[in-house]
Amino acid sequence: MKSSELAAYGGYELVERGGNIPPEADFSLVITDKSMEPHIKQNSTVYVQARAELEEFDTGIFLCNGRIICRQWCQDILGNVHLLCANPAFEKENISLPSGEREKLSCLGRVLLKSKLPAPGYY
Fold it and tell me: Distance between CA 67 and CA 51 in Å, rounded?
């Protein structure tokens, strides 16, 4: 997805290199909800590496059903994809896509964190 296409969804900013910005960052986003707390606070900025391969329970930025969301990614043995909220209070906002519907999901990149988040305790 090009930055001009991403702009239609709002809430992103291309990043300049240098300073405290991770060198592998391609863009940043402001996380506007509490679904990833306590690890990623509401209204905080995250840096994203575009086109990065995600591993089990990596945190990513996804375009799903016309929304840009931040979630932890995992896949079950049947190939179904699960996008999980880190905050158990938001468990009802998890998204599961059957393996045959993965084309409805676009991964925009991996959130660059100091360390990988633990799998949600409720999963």
Answer: 18
d(CA 64, CA 103): 10
Place of tokens 């880190």: 86
pTM of the model: 0.85
Strand residues in 8-98 grouped as ranges (E): 12-14, 27-30, 45-50, 59-64, 67-75, 81-84, 95-97
By CB atoms closer than 10 A (0-12, 13-18, 19+), residue 90 is middle
Q: CATH code at 37?
A: 2.10.109.10
Where does the pLDDT of residue 52 fall: very low under 50, low under 70, confident under 90, or very high at 90 and above? confident
Structural domain boundaries, residue 22: 3-111
Structural domain count, the chain: 1
